[in-house]
Specification:
HIT family, subunit A, 3 helices, alpha+beta, 17% strand, 144 residues, 5 strands
Length: 144
Amino acid sequence: MTTCVFCNILSGLAPANFVFRDDLCAAFMDIRPVNPGHVLVVPRAHSALLTELDEACVGHMFQVAERVDAALRASGLKCEAVNLFLADGRAAGQEVLHVHLHVVPRFIGDGHHLRFSSANFVFRPPTELVRNAELIRSKMGVVS
């Protein structure tokens, strides 16, 4: 067995309840669900970070997540809304270092929160926003 639990699941060395599989990714039930129906969409290729995946795989993962979203809403499981969540790196809360997109059914009163503190939302000076945008734009290869 490898040390990556998701690689073990994808190779059949560890059990999982799959809801979708193809050549690029798979979707299976989270064993510690936030709510019933919580699914993980995982690329077949081991990649710790989103930036290690090619664009086609990233796009496909989100297409699969959209299909899981629709299936959750039609499944009969309690699902008034859906959170998509992807932590990219340990500092962002990623626990398994294999890219994975959470598709979490939500409903009013479920007791879970995915919120940022209002203290973090401070208006920044326009000069800072311009500078930060330029730093990011210069690394994206985008011409403005």
